[in-house]
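Dear Dr. L.,

I hope this message finds you well. Following up on our conversation about the binding site, I have prepared a predicted three-dimensional model of the protein together with magnesium ion. For your records, I am including the exact sequence and ligand specification that went into the calculation, followed by the structure tokens. Please feel free to forward this to your student if that is useful.
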Amino acid sequence: MSIILKAEGISRTYKSGSVEVNALKKCDLEVEEGRFYSIVGKSGAGKSTLLRILAGMDRPDTGSVYVDGEDIFKIKDKDLAAFRRRKIGYVYQDYSLFPEFTGLENIYMPQALDKKDMDREEIDDLMEALEIAHCKDKLPTQMSGGEQQRVALARALITKPAVVFADEPTGNLDMASAKTVADMFQKASQHFHQTIIMVTHDQQMAELADGMIRISDGGLSYEH
Ligand SMILES: Nc1ncnc2c1ncn2[C@@H]1O[C@H](COP(=O)(O)OP(=O)(O)O)[C@@H](O)[C@H]1O
Ligand SMILES: [Mg+2]
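The resulting structure of the complex is given below.
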């Protein structure tokens, strides 16, 4: 099994006024390719902080993150956006679709930014698999929350990134929609062999993953 993501000695302290919060304390992590991990921990435990750092969206005070063998904090700023676009998929709690674009256009967006031609068959197959074929020509406002999140997942999957991150992807959804979205994450893992790291406080969703990583007191531990 190969290691697709590795983090070493990650620390992150937030300072607000005279108060310091040590959100992460020298965290190490190894992520195996093709596996589905959930990250759990109390509110304020540092889950979002960890995810943003692993995805190269925020810098740690100390430590390194290697994605597909590349030390991401050594990549020049001007190249990091393109690296992230190709190697990292990110699913947000609030979907973050582009409101003026259709489902199809939203999914194509990362490839459009890379000046890649649209592979209509590939996108159709992905939309079919995530049960959102009917959202092709709809704007985000014309979709349910669960549909928007599945479009957001398709957008994260389309580039076949090294890792897909998701921060509480079902946090805004009712139970039925959350279940559908959760099933699609599992499908992405099982059928597409996609490496996934998902933060959730939903125990049922956490258990869909192959392995669970718990954050407490700024440190990480594995649970299976
Ligand atoms: N931008 C920030 N400025 C100051 N403190 C922050 C900031 N972001 C997060 N924190 C603090 O860091 C800790 C971890 O936050 P976060 O990573 O958002 O936790 P979680 O996602 O597990 O709820 C919390 O105590 C939070 O208040
Ligand atoms: Mg959070």
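In brief: Strands lie at 3-16, 19-32, 36-40, 62-67, 70-71, 88-91, 163-167, 196-199, 211-216, 219-223.

With kind regards,
A. P.
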